[in-house]
Amino acid sequence: MIGDQPSNKSTQLKRNASVLLYALGKASFRVLAKLFDVSPTTTYNWLRQAAESLAEPVIEEKIKEIEIDER
Q: What is the pTM of this model?
């Protein structure tokens, strides 16, 4: 096993699908856990690891205002 990467291909597929569905706002931790038959903690850890692997967002100086929808 290399680093934190799961050796099971089905686990990797579940992990990638969880990140995608969560990022699109289509599912919560618990829904993903039930869908992929894992614990909510496992789902949380998958998403946390994915988030930590991303770089900090860069906001250009020319942007003065951002509007956020209620969602």
A: 0.68
Residues 6+ apart with CB under 8 A from 54: none
Across 9-71, the runs of DSSP E, i.e. the strands, are none
* pLDDT digits 0-9 by tens, 16-44: 999 999 999 989 989 999 999 999 999 99
- Which positions ≥6 away from 5 have C-beta within 8 Å? 12
Burial 18-55 (b: 16+ CB within 10 A, else e): bbebbeeeebebeebbeebebeeebbbebbeebeeeee
Which long-range contacts (C-beta less than 8 Å, at least 24 apart) are formed by 17-23? 18/43, 18/46, 18/47, 19/46, 19/47, 19/50, 22/47
